[in-house]
Records
---
Amino acid sequence: MRVVTLKINDQEMSGREDEDILHVAREHGIEIPTLCQLDGISEWGGCRLCLVEIEGSAKLSAACVTKVSEGMVVNTESERLSGYRKTIVEMLFTEGNHICSVCVSNNNCELQDMSSDLKIDHISLPYRYPARTVDASHDLFIFDANRCILCTRCVRVCDQVEGAHTWDIAGRGIQSQLISDLHQPWGESDSCTSCGKCVEACPTGALFEKGKAAGEMVKDPKFLVYLADMKAEKS
Amino acid sequence: MSKIITIDPVTRIEGHSKITIHLDDQGEVEEALFHVTQLRGFEKFAEGRPFHEMPSLMARICGICPVSHLVASAKACDMLMSVRIPPTAVKLRRIINLAQIAQSHALSFFYLSSPDLLLGMDSNPATRNIVGVARANPELARNGVHLRALGQEIIEILGGKKIHPGWVVPGGVSHALTAENRDYILKKLPEAIQIAERTIKWFSAELEKFSEEIAVFANFPGLFMSLIGNHDQLETYDGRLRLADDQGLVVADLPAEDYKTIVAEAINPHSYLKSPYYKPQGYPAGLYRVGPLARLHLAKTCGTPRADQALTEFKKLDHKSAFHYHLARLIEILYAFEMIEQLLSDDMILDSHVRAHAAANAHEGFGISEAPRGTLMHHYKIDDNGLITYADLIIATGHNSLAMNKGITQAAKHYIKNDKLTDGILNRIEAVIRTFDPCLSCSTHAVGQMALDIQLIDMGGTVLDRVKR
């Protein structure tokens, strides 16, 4: 594999040509915000928080799905980027119904952490207050659509790691929603193995264990990296 | 020509409200109405939510008494799970509930009502507040701050934070008490107990100055309701529900979760606050009072030595007068700290088994406990998956709705004799409301800086008199 040299935030560095900007940056101590990205499953580029500026390109690129190349000059921090990132997170808050104070994931939530990192203390956009339901039909877990940000981590982990593909996205645009099997209650799903990987992968309180009270749901999806490594060794 | 006097907003209470006083053609007071002008809607937006979320959600009803809602809600959830929670969890919940009662009573007595009691009902409204109290009697103000702070500190130690703590969860509490925290609280209690006792002595001696207020501050026969222990002792967490009249004659004694067989709620067009009443006597005759006065009227003992001494003296007073809510509050502060001391002295209090786990096992649950202001009732129904389909709450202040209206009418009739208004007269009418310490939600106007504009307007809209604060 060829090694390329590039510049990120004026810092000279090198990376393998099959690596993406996000991971090369991280290896060199540069953090780029993400929500849909999760080590151990495939990259999707859906949340758009990892957008970066690449010299010579007028458009912004998602760092998680853009491969590094020789001589590339990347900028991960600018007023324009932070403005976009803030707006994206504000839109996530206004699109659903996120009430941190009573949420099972309060203080253990990636969306909450992200708003804190981006210094979002007020939401400037109007809230949509969509009427969404809670699916508590599963014996062990609950899906609260109010808190779903459509990052598809659950969809990918269920498909790529567990091999069940219980979850998917139905609908388009603002109508998009997470569904289990053929849009039936989770508890009635034939494909779900109740492994709970989707719950661990979910960045918010949208998927959680039954019986948890506010702030009690702590997730740790790091095991996905070990699973991915073991899989790679085997093949 | 009939006229209406409006007091809007009512100050030094928890929440937002106004009072209107309706005068007849002769300028005599016809009736006075207490309007609660805010709408919350918790019963509605609880629908569809997992029941395990209820305690923390319901606690958000109020920033003054979140613990009361946590406790009542968690008890209702215990019933949905059909579990008997570990005995240590019961004791720990009792402690946090008592700390809540103590801190809330201290807020009501020292911050909100002591300006009237110490400085006088007619004193200058600009200084008739806790700052004025601090100038006139620094020790009294300091004591108030101390008692409230300790109640809040106990809540913080147990629940993680002073306002909207977690910890109380369906099935028990989320973690056990450490020996270090127990010892810390135990060390702080003796001073608080002494302060409470001293204040009771001081205020008991002051009572004779308020004979007129005692006579007309919601002083009428009627029923009293509260939880009561197995041995007729003061009870704030569990127990049976009892109603008795002002003579002590028991008219109802039943398992608390059966309250709907005797209590119904009426809706008044003038207020968002519903008016519960005792069903057998109908509406509005079935008026009853809850809260510290009712609890001490019904309880034969407190179960703690110093509070029992104070209760003996309290029993000699005319419990028909809402003015005695004040002294009852002080006695309950003493009781709360003494009882916390008793509970913490039990070796089992450090037991690590403090939570029972279960899924939803019943479709309906009731949680009844005593909040600072009276009996608090949470009633939930869930579907097979544990999602709330119905929530109905009767908040302590609601029980007192009828009595508060009757009380301000009585005081208005006594004090308002002609069209001329004075601040002192209107403050007395507000003070009737303050004896009940209604908690209309979360906001407190502890320092009297709120604009108060009272207008006496005739039917044609002409302002006859106006008092501005």
Note: The beta strands of chain A are 3-8, 11-16, 51-54, 61-62, 73-75, 134-135, 141-144, 167-170, 177-180, 207-209.
---
Amino acid sequence: MGIRITNVGPVTTIQDAGRRGYMAFGFQASGAMDKKAYEVANILVGNAGGESAIEMTLIGLSGEFTSDAVIAVTGADVSPELNGVSIPRYRAVAVKKGDVLSCGFAQSGCRAYLAVHGGFFLKKVMDSYSTNVKCGIGGYLGRPLKKEDLLYFNTVSPKVAGLEKRGIEPPKIESCAVVRAVLGPQDDYFTEKGIRTFFSSEYKLTNESDRMGIKLDGAEIESKNGSDIISDGIPFGGIQIPASGKPIVMAADRQTVGGYAKIATVISSDMAKLAQLKAGDTVRFKEISVADAQDVYLKEMKEIDELDKKLNGKQYKIGEAIKKIWKK
Amino acid sequence: MSEHIGEIRILPAGDTALVLEFGREISDELNARVKGAYGYLKQNPVKGITELVPTFRSLLVCYDPKEIGFNALCDTLTRTDFSPKTAGSAAARVVRIPVAYGGEFGEDLPQVSAHTGLTEKEIIELHSGRKYLIYMLGFLPGFPYLGGMDKRLITPRLKNPRTKIPEGSVGIGGEQTGIYPLASPGGWQLIGRTPIKPYDPNRKNPFLYNAGDYIVFDPIDMTEYARIQKEVERGSYVCREEVV
């Protein structure tokens, strides 16, 4: 059994670490927008990496549990409550059959994650649980979650040891983010002035931002001779400059290739900060070298691995074991 | 921007990706080099590379810095001989796509005829029966960017793009031709439709073709269309293909 959804925002989908290996066929990578919050949620409830979780956007979900579970809510502050009593974010919480979870509008941040011990009972499509709404595949019936959906869990009687230790201090969520970006791949399409503008201006998130791209408003970036290129692959965090001169940071549901020059690429660690910005929030870009960016990446991966090791060691990585049984 | 054709540039794309840039124009020669590198890296995987995205003229290489750092990956890629001969990439396939031209499936055929001055029959003859190289896939899952359309068929895109183009539509947009594997908005002139699914997530291999393969369109009539459509629904249709 699992959870019956009683209230849900319009952009609430099942996501995982992303659909890997199909970009060459024009298939979007998908996956959680804030990978850090997604991973921590799964670690807190004792799941193996790559397990499914629910990504909520701006509006948190509410639902009734139809079986016992261990859950964690991370990312944006959606003020989660259990049976009307506030529960902490970034902490594993045991719930009983019949309990009611209710989350509200994001008080800070934009995207929240709900993970359950053992993961949701879903089938991978092309090696991933992630919902690709455009293609109508993955996740729950290939679509965003709706009221009255009933999501089953892989585990019905969860046993998670050391619940009291399974929590971390919720990270501070900023509404004026400074994100680090590596110049390139097509920074040479822009004038020196354009690059200066990019790194010295404050940009505002527009309400056209979504899982595909984060559209920014602010100072126009000057190109040498226009910013059209012959289509090129787009990485997560690639910053396209279209004819308007205003940056678009390409995100999880981005198309695989695109014809606008990319002045720089947001480093993977800071994509989590961008994923938590709402329309009207601001962002500044700060230049970083590839070497320094990779140090940041390694440091962050180490922190996540250490949290996983500390809480889960080996014995609680049950997600994969369950899937093996299910396959049989 | 002029680049020597033999020169490969490595451009950083953040902390977990880089671009191998072979040039900045569209040419079969450049694309063959991209295909060579793509094929080589698929057959000789480098530990840490997580994704490869070939395009007209570049290869996006995503990687995990936990496994390999930027400098080490650059060294490895610089030392690799990507010339198509050495790369010995997998043989290209020619995938045959049956298409019912004109009528309700190709409602812009009269417009293409008016623009090009060719009869509908001539358009079908010029469009089908020839090999189109798949430069890359993108825009939609399995949407092929094809090279090699007869210049006489060039027709501008619609002034007002359609909000929904049905799955399987075959169209012409400027100098390009292609198939819409999924229903999508789009501005191409529709000249026909295929009953087969270039992309089907439920099939063992969801995609019928890869970048570097070729497509040939085979004209079929409505009876044939209906017959193939039934086979596709039953899952018994096998797409015709040859190895070149």
Note: The longest strand of chain A covers residues 69-77.
